[in-house]
Amino acid sequence: MLAPVKTPAAAALTDLKREIEAPGAGLDRLRLVSTPFVPEVRLHLAEDPIVWWARLEAAAGHPLPAPYWASVWPGGQALARHLLDHPELVAGRRVLDLAAGSGLVAIAAALAGASQVVANDIDPYAVASVTLNAQVNRVTVTATGEDLLDSDPGDADLLVAGDVFYDEGLAARMLPFLRRAADRGSQVLVGDPGRGHLPRSRLDMVASYLVPTTEPAVDTPVRRVEVLRPR
């Protein structure tokens, strides 16, 4: 994975608006679609994220972070479905969506009646994507780009994190942050399809879903995805 390049959030938002408004169609374009497992939510996603990434890097003239926000991932889909099906988890509560990507889970929380939703991701293009996707779905989500993992977890009532255990280094920072949040009284929910760095022995399953697969380089049509909480 290429190292992230610091792109101002305002510039990223301008880039994405230009992409969305550009005429034509093809594998190198973004399009507004309903989420397969959460059709209540529409997102701007890449027809082919790898092709789209290559074209955007060529246009920028420098490396860009991998566009994880331009795909919809199974852990996020399971979490979003879980929140919409169990609005009592969210209604009237403050929600933090960590490593938010496209903002799917944050948008689902807002639709389920959260009083405040913050979506956090260190990729400025993800921050821009959350902003645009929240507008399309007519909900209010505050998008932020700070790296929170070494900080105080804050006062969110519910912290959600989908697909965050794909990398050893990230997993080593993520679990202590989630644990600190739980110790401070936040409810913590994680969505994951059983990735290699998931600390399964330190989490309890809350729910399990069969989620349609849309991620690149995965051949199976569905994946078993669990919603979990720290022990």
Structural class: alpha/beta
Number of β-strand runs: 9
Shape designation: globular
CATH fold call of the largest domain: Rossmann fold
Taken in chain order, the helices and strands follow as: HEEHHEHEHEEHEEE
Beta-strand share of residues: 15-25%
How much helicity do the residues have? Answer: 25-40%
Polypeptide structure, described:
This protein starts with 8 loop residues before the first helix and ends with a strand. It is of the alpha/beta class. It is globular. Helix 1 packs across helix 5 and helix 3 runs parallel beside helix 4. It has six helices and nine strands. The chain has two domains: 62 residues, no CATH class; 157 residues, Vaccinia Virus protein VP39 (Rossmann fold). The strands form two sheets. The protein has a seven-stranded mixed beta sheet with strand order 5-4-3-6-7-9-8, sandwiched between helices. The protein is 32% helix and 23% strand.
